[in-house]
């Protein structure tokens, strides 16, 4: 078994009671010390959703390098290749399927107590707004199911054992698009905004039990999803006026990003490691965006 467990008494509804002591300083010191033990990633069990490629795979590799015991989850069979590379377990599941996510959580907890859950699943519509009514209501449902409801499924499936033990963290992959109205893909922007709100609710609800939740908001990352955004956006132009991918990317960076360089999947993975370790950080959105959100 990995990690440690604590036995709780007098709990209700499966949740542990808050710590009590006649000496508040003693409670604070003890809680911080216990949380610090779990902040060390080495030998902790981390479950990464969306680990088959892109940012999720980069997060898995960073956790592996930090000494974590991993379970990788994705609906794509590519997750098996990443798991073989990292010599760890993998499971295939669709996050929009509640029963499948529950089964994943049961298998993961049966393997070893889960300390960190990282949700690196994302899906754009593959279409472009400008204005939003160029799209149809049917374009929205699947985007919310993956980006928002999938995270809700994962949170519900994993939370109770974590709060019973009184340690651990969730890290959710949001987007800068969730912090302003991104007209290029309205369903994606709205779904990520909902995810940010839910992540902050999670953080407040779990805090008294010692479990944290934070979010990472990437800016412009050169991934297959970014290429799909490119194709959707340039489709608005006549073929003779369509920029190539590299030109489009640089123009987007020059207009939006003060640092004028793209973020890498490794940048996002480093942020995920920090949030797994940061025992006094919860309810935050960490923008890894080259200054995009700050520029406004």
Automatic annotation (TrEMBL):
Domain of life: Bacteria
Region listing for Disordered, in residue ranges: 1-32
Matches recorded under CDD domains: SDR_c (cd05233)
UniProt feature, compositional bias: Polar residues: 1-13, 20-32
Family membership: Belongs to the short-chain dehydrogenases/reductases (SDR) family.
PANTHER family: SHORT-CHAIN DEHYDROGENASES/REDUCTASES FAMILY MEMBER, SORBITOL-6-PHOSPHATE 2-DEHYDROGENASE
Stated name of the protein: SDR family oxidoreductase
Species of provenance: Caldilineaceae bacterium SB0662_bin_9
């Amino acid at each position: 078994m990995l990690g440690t467990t604590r036995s709780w008494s007098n709990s209700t509804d499966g949740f542990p009671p808050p710590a009590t002591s006649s000496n508040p300083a003693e409670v604070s010191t003890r809680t911080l010390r216990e949380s610090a033990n779990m902040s060390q990633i080495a030998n902790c069990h981390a479950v990464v959703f969306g680990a088959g490629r892109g940012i999720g795979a980069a997060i898995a590799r960073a956790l592996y390098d930090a000494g974590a015991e991993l379970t990788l989850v994705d609906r794509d069979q590519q997750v098996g290749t990443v798991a073989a590379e990292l010599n760890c377990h993998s499971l295939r599941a669709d996050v929009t399927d509640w029963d499948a996510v529950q089964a994943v959580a049961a298998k993961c907890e049966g393997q070893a107590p889960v300390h960190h859950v990282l949700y690196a699943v994302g899906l754009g519509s593959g279409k472009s707004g400008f204005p939003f009514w160029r799209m149809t209501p049917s374009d929205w449902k699947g985007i919310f199911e993956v980006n928002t409801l999938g995270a809700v499924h994962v949170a519900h499936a994993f939370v109770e054992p974590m709060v019973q033990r009184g340690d651990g963290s969730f890290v959710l992959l949001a987007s800068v698009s969730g912090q302003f109205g991104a007209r290029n893909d309205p369903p994606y922007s709205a779904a990520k905004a909902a995810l940010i709100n839910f992540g902050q609710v999670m953080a407040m609800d779990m805090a008294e039990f010692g479990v944290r939740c934070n979010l990472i908001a990437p800016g412009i990352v050169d991934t297959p999803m970014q290429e799909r955004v490119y194709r959707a956006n340039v489709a608005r132009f006549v073929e003779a006026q369509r920029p190539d991918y590299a030109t489009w990317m640089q123009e987007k960076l020059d207009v939006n990003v003060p640092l004028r360089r793209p973020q890498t999947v490794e940048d996002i993975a480093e942020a995920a490691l920090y949030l797994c370790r940061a025992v006094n950080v919860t309810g935050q959105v960490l923008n890894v965006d080259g200054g995009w959100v700050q520029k406004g």
